[in-house]
Amino acid sequence: MARRLLLLCAGYVLLLAAGWWTSAATPSSAVRRTPALLSPEARLLALERDNGCLDTASPAAIQSWPDWAAAHIAGGDIAPSRVVSDPYPTLHSVAVDADHDRVIVTDPNRHAIWAYERTASSKGAEAVTALAGIRGPSTGMMFIAAVALDPRAKEIYTVDNDIGDRLMVFPYDVDGNVKPKRVLSVPHQAWGISINPARREIAVSVEGPREIVVYAQDASGTDRPLRMIRGPKTGLGDPHGVVFDGVNNEIVVANHGNQNGRQTAPGSVSGGRRGGGEGGAAPIVGGRFEEPSITVYPGEATGDVAPVRRIQGTKTGLNWPMAISVDAAHDEVAVANSGDSSIRIFGRAADGDVAPVRVIKGPRTGIRGPMGVAIDAKNDELWIANYGDHTALVFARTASGDVAPRRILRNAPEGAPTVGFGNPGAVAYDSKRDEILVPN
Amino acid sequence: MSEPRISAFARLANGNAKPTRVIAGQTARVSRTMHGLFYNAKNDEIVVPVALGGAILTLPGGANGGAPPLRIIQGPKTGLVQPDTLYVDVLHDEIVADSGNDSVVVFPRTASGDIEPIRTLGGPKTQISNIYGIAVDAVHNLIVVGNRVDTGGRTSQDAILIFNRTDTGDVAPRGIITGPRTGIIKIRQVVVDEDRAQIFATIKNNFENYEFEQERPSPWNPDRTGFIGVWSITDNGDVPPRGVIKGPATGLVWPAGVAINPVNGEVYAIDSVSNALFMFRVPEFFKRPPSMSDGGRR
């Protein structure tokens, strides 16, 4: 650190003496280059440490530089004056294995999967230590979204929503920076994932292309999908959560309703090896904002098929429906309604503009921007992953109204702010309010 | 990306900071893939593209929660397919946007509904292929395009394309900053410092590959960290940046966005891999007096 400060001060002195953007500007030879001494994993961890996200020290990373030897370049390797970053996990999705008493959550902030005892909870303001954390370069995880479990094989499934574009499978008993047991290349913007144990198939929802892609459960590498639901009749619009209901042989999908300016290309797996792709020949029809919905398809549906049921309309209260969970034992569907910080439970066979049978919402619930939801029918509980707070909440399955959770699982001390970045892609300065705007 | 929202932070925020407000929810209409947004101080408005809805939103400057947009540009006449980024020319009262269909489209700032653009810039002569950044220098009458040409590896044809502000149709750029000495690999958001005639560009400098039929390289390789590069609006060809923010001390891994605050001598960078907002105090970047006569490297 002392060396860094010394270099930084020296750099500033040089810049001030030379002036910016003149022929006497700081030569590029003053720009620091750090030798390569560490493995890629160690270098990445060093970078995260520098961002305040790790507590173990590591040497700095190697850099590669273009041929700038003869150029006069100002600036250089400058330490930031301020950094906004969240060192704690930010929960996206949750899955429960009641048979093995495990709860698994995904964390797109620190690119990790965390495992907890099913009954773990915070007694007060403290964070709960995870049983295991899967993270690091070897995992291949980037901006992971949903998670699904195979209790029989004791496997964890997750998908990258961005950059990685992979489905990854890990055994229950791994911890740390480990390679996945299997990797499957999936379309860009995958969000939801669900396993149908009866069919031994996986359904993956994909946002922009507006499609549900179905693979064999043991697919890996560049295996092609078995089939795909896609096209204007499907009613799919920016799909998020998906459940492949093995009991009722149905695929249930939560849609935000966004339709971009190009018509979805109808069809099944013809779009390419992994499924996906908008198809350059599809006509431009103009963008639309449709109402959010829950759409349901037969398990074997393929191509441009209309849903057999659709929950949609003002009575539903749907507002950015994210993950969904189907309770086949009680014939209910739970929806993480992120837009109004509620959980909405509908009858599984509900159709049309219908009100939910129960809503969990209000200040006592602690629900803040939920992304994940999972029903544990065996223990009669309902789990919620809060994206807007560092908590997972456990309610009685039949909870309704403004009720306190039965248990709170914190992954940060109570009151720790949640920054909420998830692959942020731009920045702007609001000079009127002296604020910085950051979109995910 | 999988959690669409616009978060606001106090400029002096540091560490694990709580946003002062968050714009999110069905009624706000925002979606993932916001690769650009613009705060218009003159009219106190936030303008943002909606890639998944083929739309441009104008939100109140102080929008919070699910505040609905003041105006929405959307529909088949607009030519908007999947817009990723945009800029507002405050001086000429225009929104300049990526159409998501390899072209730049220009609308009146107050446009709403399904209307045709007043100008469209695209075609083979323009070299516009995949827009990741747009900026306007209204003082010098220029449009700056951060253009990406996916080659699937470390070679790059990514470029900063510079057009006359009122260019329309299929016209060649007046300047192209590209080549190995630029260091431009995977360009993202660009902004212009009109007073000093500078372009600030975000360079991810790592290759992600979304080509449908190809394998994905690992994005975890910190050998190839990105940077913020500064060029003159008069630069042309394979020229190094005039200034950089780059290296291990910066903390930048994959910078995806850049904004400037000349009054406070600051540059802001958002980093996608490390999920962090970096604020750099670099007053030397803003000391140069407004001028076009900078040695003429074109």
Summary, kept brief:
The complex is a heterodimer of chains A (440) and B (298). Chain A is 6% helix and 35% strand. Chain A has 440 residues and is mostly beta strands.
Structure write-up:
The complex is a heterodimer of chains A (440) and B (298). Chain A has two helices and 30 strands. Chain A has 440 residues and is mainly β. Chain A is globular, with a radius of gyration of 24 Å. Chain B is an all-beta fold. Helix content of chain B is 0%, strand content 36%. Chain B contains no helices and 21 strands. Chain B has strands spanning 6-10, 21-23, 38-40, 45-50, 55-60, 71-74, 86-89, 94-98, 104-108, 119-121, 131-137, 142-147, 159-164, 175-177, 187-193, 198-203, 227-232, 243-245, 255-261, 266-271, 276-281. In chain B, a hairpin with a 4-residue loop joins strand 3 (38-40) and strand 4. Chains A and B meet through helix 1, helix 2, strand 1, strand 2 and strand 17 of A and strand 1, strand 4, strand 18, strand 19 and strand 20 of B.
Keywords:
heterodimer, A: 440 residues, mainly beta, 2 domains, four-stranded antiparallel beta sheet, 35% strand, B: 298 residues, 36% strand, disordered C terminus
CATH C-level label of the largest domain in chain A: Mainly Beta
User: Strand share of the residues of chain B?
Assistant: 35-45%
Give the number of helices of chain B. Answer: 0
Tell me the CATH architecture of the largest domain in chain A. 6 Propeller
Largest sheet report of chain A: 4 strands, antiparallel
Count every helix of chain A, treating DSSP H or I runs of 4 or more residues as helices.
2
In the sheet with the most strands of chain B, the strands line up as: 3-4-5-6
Give the topology string of chain B: H per helix, E per strand: EEEEEEEEEEEEEEEEEEEEE
CATH topology of the largest domain in chain A: Neuraminidase
What distance lies between the first and last C-alpha atoms of chain B, to the nearest angstrom? 38 Å
Shape of chain B: globular
Name the average pLDDT of chain B: 90
Per CATH, the superfamily of the largest domain in chain A is: TolB, C-terminal domain
Which residues of chain B form runs of ≥5 with pLDDT under 50? Answer: 209-219, 290-298
Percent of residues of chain B in helical segments? Answer: under 10%
Give the oligomeric state.
heterodimer
Query: Averaged pLDDT of chain A, please?
Result: 85
Strand portion of chain A? 35-45%
Whole-number total of structural domains of chain A: 2
Number of strands of chain B: 21
Poorly predicted tracts of residues of chain A: 1-41, 47-61, 271-275
